[in-house]
Amino acid sequence: MTNSDLTGIQGADAIALSPRVASRFYSRWHDADPRRDGQIASLAGLSLTRSVFARLLQKEIADGMPLPRAMRRLRNLLIVTLIERDLNNHGDLVQVVDTMTAFAEFAIETHVAALTAELQEIHGVPIGDDSGRPQCLIVLGMGKLGGGELNVSSDIDLIFVYPEDGETRISGLHQRSLSNHEFFVRLGRRLIGDLSEITQDGFTFRVDMALRPNGNAGPLVASFGMVEEYLIVQGREWERYAWVKARALCGDPSDVDTLDQIIRPFVYRRYLDFGSIDAIRGMHRQIRAEVTRLEALHPDRSNNVKLGRGGIREIEFLAQVFQLIRGGREPALRERSTRIVLRTLADKQLLEPVVVEQLLQAYTFLRNLEHRLQYLDDAQTHTLPANDADRLLVAQMMGYADTAGLLAALEAQRQLVSSQFDAIFSDKNGTQESGDTISPDIHAAIASGEPLEAIAEHLTTLGFGEPQQAAQRLLSTWQSARVQALPEVSRNRLVTLVNAALPLLVDCGATQLITLHRLLDFLETVARRAAYLALLTEYPPALMRVIRMMSASDWAAKYLTNHPILLDELLDDRTLRAPPDWPAFTHDLQQQLAAHAGDTERQLDTLREMHHAQTLRLLAQDLEGELSVERLADHLSTLADILVDQTVQAVWKTLPQRHREVPQFAVIAYGKLGGKELGYSSDLDVIFLYDDDDPEAPAQYAKLAQRFITWMTSHTPAGILFDIDIALRPDGASGLLVSTVTAFDKYQRQSAWVWEHQALTRARFCAGDSAIGDRFETLRNDVLRQPREACALQRDVLAMRQKMTRAHPGKAHQFELKQDSGGMIDIEFIVQYLILLHASAWPQLTADIGNIALLKLAGELGLIDTALANAAAAAYRNYRKLQHQARLQGDEQSLVVPERISAEIAAVRQLWASVFASVAAT
Asked: How many CB atoms neighbour CB 841 within 10 A?
């Protein structure tokens, strides 16, 4: 919390009022007993903590007060102490809300404990039918109590729940058994009475139970089973908003955890829920309409700082809509405090930090003003007083010389809040829902199912190049069983989205028809999720980016269709275009995996969702031409390294019998990952090494490797992470899944085939124990730098190349960039051969610097002709670029017309002939 959060008492002519002048409640309490000055003085300098509450309460009880009356008297003392500290600048908003929240928790816990003991003495202990365990009442604090931000004169919103049905177990003849439900109903009623009954000492807290399942018409208490059924079957959107704040104030910790598992799926959806925007917008409309109606009836009660325009509720809505949209994927957003959530939004760049600072200052100002309104008479009010004298008192409590100064400051804060609120919640689609803003003819034609010719005519007018084909696809989509099965509101929104997309598709030029096909495939797939349609409706720029990506790449279109949860990534251009921050990504991934420890399914999805999100950002930058093929491959390889490392760590923690906390285990990357040339959908070639003498090590690390592969390759609702190829391990398919470093060393030096040493040229330590990584790198260099006989090496390398050629016969009139003679494999074999032949004399050849750099190095060392080396390096770069472009369009084989790259093919074939001349001649 920064200093700016704690401000809010402002004004050039700051006025200091004594609490007795400012607060009639304070004055009445003070004047009722001459000892009251001493009571306040006794708290001077003390933090108002639970231990202080307990000491003061026991003093009242020792003086003969029953618990409810003692609690009321304690409450009054705390309120006047907070008033005095706040108005004398010895406290601040944080102290006020923290103290009130802590006291409410203390009062509820104390009363529940006392009442439970009394009822158990009469009726026995509630026992669960299923578990056979004693049952406790769980009191959920909602609203500001749940959020830890309670007002000085607020009511408290509570919900009463208990784990299981059953009956009380009696232990004496004087006891009469009750059902658990009846027991907790009695307990709840008495708790409400003890807290809220008004006596000569006032009350402890007003209690509101309206947020319980079925509201005031529902039972006072509910079992976990009742709560779960209600939330699944009947829970409404506004209740999700309310249950965001739900916090257990008492109860058995294990039962509280169970209840949290019931509530969380209702509140926090696993996908990004942009439908929440419209739901909260609707709630806000109703609240504003009610405030407007009341202010029209009572003009003297205007300026509601809580519910009015730019008020406290709008700040809370701003925070909570982000929670409802993203909380299922962002555990940090499940905080209940408005202030903490706003800070998190800034940290995660979901709101600009300067905006968050302004909102926090406005929140502090409005909450301070709200408290001063309540200080007057200890009344639960949120509107400025009707009479001028009280308005002036409030202005002076806020530090202003007159009412006009306060009203001017209030209007400035409200304007700031309402502008931010409107920026997020403005009804962008108020007119667009009917399609009127773009092309009413197209909208009406599609929605009403007009004949093909009519729709084609509208498309022609719009500027579509192939109107007949486009009209046919539009109609077939609209008439599909999948679309017709949608609720009417979703069908209307789908047509509205298509209507909005058509002018953007026209701008796609030659690809407009194929882009339309891709877009409609995507929309048909996601239409069942209203949240995705809501996102594209709420954020037109996201629709524009979807179309742009689909126009540029078939692979991108399929990727978005398979992972529509990634639509969120298209909202913020800054995030989409920002260079990867790999340390921050790693930290975020670690935090999310830790937050879901014990929930393997959620951890699997977390890995996939974060991988997909980062891949989409790279894809967007790639399609915009901001990344070279080499730079993209570097980023994708780094991303894979992080995911491999974090998966190993997470999997190890799931092994119940692990013999050490940190595994002495490493993953070694081969192939494209080893050479840092990874593409979007590349699989990972890896092997597993360990260095651990513990007797349990072989079995434990084999299990770790097996689970690692399962975590990587399993299909979940979020897709898969990577395909894994472990064929390069010692002895291939017949070899052990994991090897000791010693065994791997022996195999490489004594038993490995030449092709395995070729593969070793593109191998590197990827993740895990860095000491094992160092030993691997030493071994790799030693093996690659061994002296080799040229003719034997040439024969072995050429034999392997011929074997690959037979397995991949060429196609007439087309050149396959990777496999055909003069292609990428030839370049890679040349580089591998040069390393194996010359690294004993030129150890720098074993550096992991990529094929292009190694070709140029070989030329500089005089091992091959420099001009040929540069030409082959340029060919390899161009091949990779063409291969990348082909795969973006869905061509996995990367077929090219040979005339297009005849110079590159000739250069590679010439270098091949030069390098392998002696064998070719024999």
From this structure: 11
Q: Report CA-CA distances (Å) from 15 to 173, 398, 468, 864.
A: 67, 8, 76, 87
What sign for the dihedral angle of Cα 9, 13, 14, 20?
negative
Structure-derived torsion over alpha carbons of residues 902, 904, 907, 913, reported in degrees to the nearest 10: -80
Q: Are 104 and 141 in contact (CB under 8 A)?
A: yes
Is residue 640 over pLDDT 60? yes
The residue extents of the domains of the chain are 3-234, 275-425, 431-556, 785-921
Q: Are 406 and 400 in contact (CB under 8 A)?
A: yes
**pLDDT tens, position by position, 240-279:** 889 999 999 999 999 999 999 999 989 987 766 666 676 7
Structure tokens at 340: 């903490």
Reported confidence tier of residue 921, pLDDT bands at 50, 70, 90:
very low
User: In which residue are the tokens 């051969």 written?
Assistant: 833
Tell me which CATH code domain 431-556 carries: 1.20.120.1510
Helix%, strand%, coil% for the chain, nearest 5: 65, 5, 30
Q: Are 921 and 889 in contact (CB under 8 A)?
A: no
> Which CATH topology does 275-425 take?
Four Helix Bundle (Hemerythrin (Met), subunit A) (1.20.120)
Does residue 497 contact residue 543 with C-beta atoms inside 8 Å?
Answer: yes
The CATH homologous superfamily of the domain defined by 785-921 = Nucleotidyltransferases  domain 2 (1.20.120.330)
CB 301 within 8 A of CB 293: no
For residue 142, the one-letter residue type is M
Residue type, position 128, single letter: G
CA separation, residue 463 to residues 160, 446, 478, 504 (Å): 62, 17, 21, 11
The residues, ordered by sequence, that sit 6+ positions from 565 with a Cβ below 8 Å of its Cβ are 271, 272, 609, 612, 718
Check pLDDT > 90 for residue 872.
Answer: yes
Residues 6+ apart with CB under 8 A from 322: 333, 341, 345, 350, 351
- Would you list the DSSP string of 568-630? GGGS-HHHHHSPP-HHHHHHHHHHHHHHTTT-HHHHHHHHHHHHHHHHHHHHHHHHTT-S-HH
132: left (phi over 0), alpha (psi -120 to 50) or beta: left
CA distance 409 to 11: 9
pLDDT in the model for residue 449: 61
CATH fold of the domain at 3-234:
Beta Polymerase; domain 2 (3.30.460)
Q: What are the tokens at 17?
A: 């009022």
**Start-to-end C-alpha separation, the chain:** 80
Task: Give the rounded distance of the alpha carbon of 735 from its chain centre.
Answer: 41
| Res. 504: pLDDT tops 70 | yes
Domains 275-425 and 785-921 in one fold: yes
Q: How many residues does the chain have?
A: 922
Other Cβ atoms within 10 Å of 51 Cβ, number: 11
Residue 698: both structure tokens together? 């072989």
φ, ψ dihedrals at 397, nearest 5° = -60, -30
Report the C-alpha gap between 892 and 899 in whole angstroms.
20
Going by the DSSP 8-state scheme, the letter that residue 170 receives in this structure is P
> Alpha-carbon distance 559 to 622, whole Å?
14
Report pTM: 0.69
Half-sphere exposure of 730 (CA within 13 A, CB side): 18
Q: What is the Cα–Cα distance from 725 to 682, expressed in whole angstroms? A: 11
Contact between 605 and 270 (Cβ < 8 Å)? yes
